[in-house]
TrEMBL record, chain A:
Name this polypeptide is given: Uncharacterized protein
Gene3D superfamilies given in the database record: 1.25.40.1010, 1.25.40.1040
Keywords: Repeat, TPR repeat
Organism: Acacia crassicarpa
Lineage: Eukaryota, Viridiplantae, Streptophyta, Embryophyta, Tracheophyta
Stretches forming TPR repeats: 77-110
TrEMBL record, chain B:
Cellular compartments per GO CC: NatA complex
UniProt cross-references to InterPro entries, sorted A to Z: Acyl_CoA_acyltransferase (IPR016181), GNAT_dom (IPR000182), N-term/lysine_N-AcTrnsfr (IPR051556)
Domain N-acetyltransferase: 9-158
GO molecular function, one term: N-acetyltransferase activity
SUPFAM superfamilies, sorted: Acyl-CoA N-acyltransferases (Nat)
Origin superkingdom: Eukaryota
Keywords: Acyltransferase, Transferase
Ranges annotated as spanning the membrane: none
Record-linked Pfam families: Acetyltransf_1 (PF00583)
Name listed for the protein in its UniProt record: N-acetyltransferase domain-containing protein
Gene Ontology BP terms: mitotic sister chromatid cohesion
Length: 904, 164
């Protein structure tokens, strides 16, 4: 390095490198300038100066200098390496890899560059390249532990576990007998466990077990040892030994569900879908009875039997399970039980059971058959459980009456208000839900969870400003926007993005959705440091697991929601570009043209002002930020707080396509992914891609109303297009012609016929009827009245259910809302829409959308009052409260209440 | 009595973070809406205002006001004391009152007093058990309830300041 320089300058060059490594950038810069004074064209110095400036936040200069340096000295590996580092610092990994490769062409055995390259290859999952680089590193420095381990991990990642195992064996061969020294025992043990997991991965169970037993004294993590052992035993079919070991594990932790599952497997009493024969159930019952004797403090052992027991036995077990938890007061009891509602018949049994308990407590103060008096809180917890039960079953009115009674009984329990809020949300009154959630929040201002829950409810009710104010109560510096973003608080960003979307503020909505997308990019980015760290620390099993997690990162639900939200924004943006945005907010469209103009002007002025302020602030902070030791600790001010720049993109559909590709890759089994793909590609006129989306929809759920819609819309659209003229179009046509007969729904049928047979198959379902009607109108606009009539003739039957005490109607609120929108906007039949609204207001009395009589949208309802004076926090308006001078309970003297009057 | 299980009853202070609990109790217990002064006094009284928890549920409270007299003496005025109806008869009121009476053993506290409606015999008897005596009757103390009269119940504390 710096070879072409005279001695003095060569020393200076070394100083630059050293200063860079020790982050003394100013010093380095001085040295560089000293060299450049004499040798202004010295390439490596120019490069290093650039790299130094990069760390001082002078990006554009940095790139210029580094490129200049490279140009002056193309044969220098230093220049290429520096160029690679520069790209790496900007996360441009592909470019960085290219630079490193060029550097290695000049200096093939440069350990530092090889190591940097290997990290990038791991990050980019260039696995064969990773193996190669790791091999080179090992060949160059075989006495370095990390190089052995790195080579093995590279092979493992490249799906060659047995090769990885061999490498670790060879590595072990190089060790002394007395290895490891005391301070490396944990690390060595981890390596051994990783090695054994490699054998397991390659299917060599016998060998793995042997190795495990042989190395037992050297493995420090005894629990991992046992878990590995039992996993191998089961895979080898040594079930008896497996059973023994699982019992030992259970005695160590009797609340680990996986151990119970394993034990059942060893005993031949396990099924993946949870269905068991009567014999099996008996066996399981006996097993868990004996386990319960052993593990008295385990809650898992009590809860698991509820999953497999049926009928009377289930009822008895549920009874025994629920009673003590109600006595103790466990607010999470319902969410513990709620998976059981998916088992046929169990919800009915639970309902009956809880009602029996309620009755007995009310009349006798004790559980049926028990002689012990229950504490007074038991009744309240029963009511609490019942409220959630009825909510789950869609019987919101009863649920509300139960929760109100619980609140009357003990008005200080916060969970009651949270649940009331949830019931109101489910029954369609989001404003009232937010009001009750706020009330819960006020009861413990130190509880972040209820604060967050309240924020979410406010966002659901589109009270964004209020939600922001509430969220800020729990963020540190008061600048909550950045703070919540920095904390990657994704539920908040999603909920607020969705709210902005509902309110038509696409800019802000996009901003929030893209923020979530960015978090995922950051998470991907964050693994970078672990490529070197984990090899050094030997946490290999966890490392490999983490990489696997990263590979499926984008299938996470939050990413899915954010990407879907962003795509919807872009589609809407394409359908109604911002310039002609009369529909952007409804208020505007109601104004006179002159008023509109004025408002626009006002808006523009305000925007300009805000922009200027933001820029000024930004400048200020960046200059002051740099002056302090070149580090950036001042956050830049957001230059586009309302996301207006995001709205000004040229081609929203291509932007959407970027996110769609991620969805197609990571959520291929979600209907929504392909619905969005269909909408997008139809707009982009990409016929074959749209067709692919249709086929995916049919694969996932051919009977779904939306799948049907897309199918009909697609062929209807294709049918109405002009005959193909260009060759490429002809090609598309021929593909479609070949494919159409393979779609069974359309087999030898016209679209109208296909639509009819769809209706025939799903006559009794509201949403299917709606889809049929919409398609009927699409295919033949003259049949609009027929379509409307078909929707209006739908009947809301009682949901089929045995043993239910209260009847429930079948239709769901969100479906009815969708039908209302269909009638009002797609079919444009205002009379029918308003008839529909009146009808649904009956079904959903708490729905604000349909202005049900109990909802806060109805001026005389109690909830309306509640929402109006949400701020004074006095919910218990009912005058049922105790009179001041009445002593109700048992004439006991300690029970009393008294009065006082405040004196001013 | 009655309840065969041991349920722990504990007391906790009132802070601005949980004052809503006291409000909820008062709404449920008393027909009077207390104003902000009441809550400011309660907060200012420190240890003299307590919430009672039945396992983890807030079910009762005692709220006091400390009244400074000339010469550094302090009178304790019990503004409210109450327990939610379902949780009465469990010794919670006694525990709350005893807590305040224990605090009152400080030398500068001369007396504890309170107002009670004249027909509230059970409350009167309750306080008498703890050494309170009727010291005064105030006509038309209450405006919206009958009877409108109240007694002042007082318990003398500091033996040094007795003038008898």
């Amino acid at each position: 390095m710096g070879a072409s320089l005279p001695a003095k300058e060569a020393n200076l060059f070394k100083l630059i490198v050293k200063s860079y490594e020790t982050k003394q950038y100013k010093k380095g810069l001085k040295a560089a300038d000293a060299i450049l004074k004499k040798f202004p064209d010295h390439g490596e110095t120019l490069s290093m100066k650039g790299l130094t400036l990069n760390c001082m936040d002078r990006k554009s200069e940095a790139y210029e200098l580094v490129r200049q340096g490279l140009k002056n000295d193309l044969k220098s590996h230093v220049c290429w390496h520096v160029y690679g580092l520069l790209y790496r610092s900007d996360r441009e990994y592909r470019e960085a890899i290219k630079c490193y490769r060029n550097a290695l062409k000049i200096d093939p055995d440069n350990i530092e560059i090889l190591r940097d390259l290997s990290l990038l290859q791991a990050q980019m999952r260039d696995l064969s390249g990773f193996v190669e680089t790791r091999q080179q590193l090992l060949t160059l420095k075989p006495n370095h532990r990390m190089n052995w381990i790195g080579f093995a991990v590279a092979h493992d990642l490249n799906s060659n576990a047995s090769k990885a195992f061999e490498i670790l064996e060879a590595y072990e061969g190089t060790l002394e007998d007395d290895h490891p020294p005391e301070n490396e025992r944990c690390e060595h043990g981890e390596m051994l466990l990783y090695k054994i997991s490699l054998l397991e991965k390659s299917g060599l169970f016998e060998r793995a077990l042997e190795e495990l037993h042989k190395k037992e004294p050297k493995i420090v993590d005894k629990l991992a040892y046992k878990e590995q052992e039992v996993s191998l035993l089961v895979k080898l079919g040594h079930l008896e030994e497996g059973e023994k070991l699982y019992r030992i594990l259970l005695s160590m932790n009797p609340d680990n569900y996986r151990y119970y599952e394993g034990l059942q497997k060893c005993l031949g009493l396990y099924s993946d879908n949870g269905h068991y024969s009567l014999d099996e159930i008996e066996g399981l019952d006996a097993l868990y009875k004996s386990l319960r004797q052993q593990y008295k403090w385990s809650s898992a052992v009590k809860r698991i039997p509820l999953d497999f027991l049926q009928g009377e036995k289930f009822k008895e077990a549920a009874d025994n399970y629920i009673r003590p938890l109600l006595t103790k007061g466990v607010p999470s009891l319902f969410s513990d039980l709620s998976p059981l509602y998916h088992h046929p018949g169990k919800a009915d049994i639970l309902e009956q059971l809880i009602l029996e308990l309620e009755h007995s407590i009310r009349t006798a103060g004790q559980y049926p058959g028990s002689s012990e008096k229950e504490p007074p809180s038991t009744l309240m917890w029963i009511l609490f459980l019942l409220a959630q039960h009825y909510d789950k079953r869609g019987q919101h009115e009863i649920a509300l009456s139960k929760i109100d009674e619980a609140i009357e009984h003990t008005p200080t329990v916060i969970d009651l208000y949270s649940v009331k809020s949830r019931i109101l949300k489910h029954s369609g009154d989001l404003a009232a839900a937010a009001a009750f959630s706020d009330e819960a929040r006020c009861m413990d201002l130190a509880d972040r969870y209820i604060n967050s829950e309240c924020v979410k409810r406010m966002l659901q009710a589109d009270q964004v400003a209020l939600a922001e104010k509430t969220a800020v109560l729990f963020t540190k510096d008061g600048d909550q926007h950045n703070n919540l973003h920095d904390m990657q608080c994704m539920w908040y960003e999603l909920a607020s993005g969705e709210s902005y979307f509902r309110q038509g503020d696409l800019g802000r909505a996009l901003k929030k959705f893209l923020a979530v997308e960015k978090h995922y990019a950051d998470i991907t980015e964050d693994q970078f440091d672990f490529h070197s760290y984990c090899l050094r620390k030997m946490t290999l099993r966890t490392y490999v697991e983490m990489l696997a997690f990263q590979d499926r990162l984008h299938s996470h639900i939050y990413f899915h929601k954010a990407a879907a939200g962003a795509i919807r924004c872009y589609i809407k943006l394409f359908d109604s570009p911002p310039k002609s945005a009369a529909e952007e907010d409804e208020d505007m469209s109601k104004l006179l043209p002159s008023q509109k103009k004025k408002m626009r002007q006002k808006q523009r002025k305000a925007e300009a002002r805000a922009k200027k302020e933001a820029e000024e602030k930004n400048e200020e902070s960046s200059t002051s930020g740099v002056s302090k030791s070149g580090k950036r600790h001042v956050k830049p001010v957001d230059p586009d707080p309302r996301g207006e720049k995001l709205l000004q993109i040229q081609d929203p559909l291509s932007e959407a396509a970027k996110y769609l590709k991620l969805l197609q890759k990571s959520s291929p089994d979600s209907l929504e992914t392909h619905l969005l793909a269909f909408e997008l590609y139809m707009r982009k006129q990409k016929i074959l891609l749209a067709f692919q989306a249709v086929k995916q929809l049919l694969r996932l759920d051919a009977e779904h109303p939306d799948s049907h819609r897309c199918l009909i819309k697609f062929f209807h659209k294709v049918g109405s297009m002009n005959a193909p003229s260009m060759d490429s179009e002809k090609l598309i046509w021929s593909v479609l012609e070949a494919e159409r007969p393979t779609i069974s729904q359309l087999h030898e049928k016209s679209l109208l016929e296909a639509n009819n047979s769809f209706l025939e198959n799903h006559k009794d379902s509201l949403m299917h009827r709606a889809a049929f009607a919409e398609m009927l109108y699409t295919l033949d606009p003259n049949k609009k009245s027929e379509a409307v009539k078909l929707i209006e003739d739908s009947t809301n039957d009682l949901a089929p259910r045995n043993g239910a005490i209260w009847p429930v109607k079948e239709w769901e609120l969100k479906d009815c809302v969708a039908v209302h929108k269909l009638l009002g906007s797609v079919l444009d039949e205002q009379d029918a829409a308003s008839r529909w609204k009146t009808r649904c207001a009956e079904y959903f009395p708490y729905s604000t959308y349909f202005e049900g009589r109990h909802s806060s949208a109805s001026p005389n309802s109690a909830l309306n009052q509640k929402c109006k004076n949400a701020e004074n926090g006095s919910p218990n308006h009912s005058v049922g409260a105790q009179n001041a001078n009445s002593i109700t309970s048992n004439g006991n003297l300690e029970a009393f209440s008294k009065l006082s009057i405040q004196q001013s | 009595m009655g309840v065969g299980r041991e349920v722990s009853i504990s007391l906790d202070g009132v802070r601005d973070k949980n004052i809503m609990q006291l409000r909820k109790l008062n709404i449920a217990l008393f027909p009077v809406r207390y104003n902000d002064n009441y809550y400011a006094d309660a907060l200012a009284s420190g240890e003299y205002t307590k919430l009672a928890y039945y396992s983890d549920i807030c079910v009762g409270a005692i709220a006091c006001r400390l009244e400074k007299k000339d010469g550094g003496a302090v009178r304790v005025y019990i503004m409210t004391l109450g327990v939610l109806a379902p949780y009465r008869g469990l010794g919670i009121g006694t525990k709350l009152l005893n807590h305040v009476l224990d605090l009152c053993s400080k030398p500068n506290i001369s007396e504890v007093y309170l107002h009670v409606q004249t027909n509230n015999d059970e409350a009167i008897n309750f306080y008498k058990k703890f050494g309170f005596e009727i010291t005064e009757t105030i006509q038309n103390y209450y405006t919206n309830i009958t009877p409108p009269d109240c007694y002042v119940l007082t318990k003398q504390i500091a033996p040094s300041s007795t003038k008898k």
